[in-house]
Amino acid sequence: MTVHGVLDLSTLVLVSCTSGIPEQCAPFLSEGLTFIGPFGIATAAGVHTFMDYFAKMAPLFTKLDLSFGCPTLVFQNNDASVVFIGSGSSERRSTVSPRATLVWCTSMPERPQLVHLHISIPPIEKRHNTLTPISSILDLPDTRIYERASLLYIRDTDGVSHVVHPGAIVYLEAAHQYVDIHLLRETFRTRSSLSSLLEKLPATFVRVHRSFAVNAKLVTSMSTTKILMSNGEQIFVPVKRRTAVRKQLREAMELSPYGDASASPAPAAHSPQEEEPAGEALSSSH
């Protein structure tokens, strides 16, 4: 495991957790993971507890203007690496810099596993050279219109209700009167139409064709015939849709996940387009 790799993974974990999509770092979590969160939690253990906690804390994180510092390797031997992420620098008038300590098991360099995570948030923020308690900020209503602020409550075909953060959905797959919801670690089926589900999701979701819609934020790469998602799965693109899909994905990738919900997404993002020249191809933006 290279130093560069450990540092990159540490940043991925911190950003995923504070963005409300902890499942994005799921492949790197040890089954014996322990963690300490920034909002009223002592040491907790377990991957499922970890996912649950950071998904539920997403509305609190969204009220903070976060700035991330650079990761620093503070310890490393043949079996473990310890990374610290401190305060970030920003010219913005109001920022909060999470601090994190991450302990990695690197005895298998090709498969690093996070065994402990401690995230804290400084109790003050800087605003016009004054200090404001973080607790006061969290008590304020979120003045930003947050189109995915609420978690989705989706019942599957077995009657089990799932609490899903939209950012954790990799892609949707329609199957007659059902939709398979593909997360990074699991898939479940709900009775719904693809169109009705997309109405509840932000404009960062792009309908590739009639049966598939992908989360543009979790697209790893694009080629002339397919889209590679962050969970390793591939979504094939119809020849007649390549130019439109390429354009829609590029636009969706630029959208903020905290975009103005009052701004209606272009119909093209959720609806199949008319036919295009077969010679057009998707080009990679990653």
Task: Describe this entry's structure for a reader.
By secondary structure, the chain is an alpha+beta fold. The chain has two domains: 137 residues, Nuclear Transport Factor 2, Chain: A, CATH 3.10.450.50; 118 residues, OB fold (Dihydrolipoamide Acetyltransferase, E2P). The chain has six helices and 18 strands. The strands form five sheets. Strands 2-1-6-5-4-3 form a six-stranded mixed β-sheet, covered by helices on one side. Strands 13-12-11-15-14 form a five-stranded antiparallel β-sheet, covered by helices on one side. It starts with a helix and ends in a 32-residue tail after the last helix. The relative contact order is 0.11.
Strand content: 25-35%
Radius of gyration: 20 Å
CATH class of the largest domain: Alpha Beta
Number of helices: 6
The helix/strand series, from N terminus to C terminus, equals HEEHHEEEEEEHEEEEEHEEEEEH
User: Per CATH, what is the topology of the largest domain?
Assistant: Nuclear Transport Factor 2, Chain: A
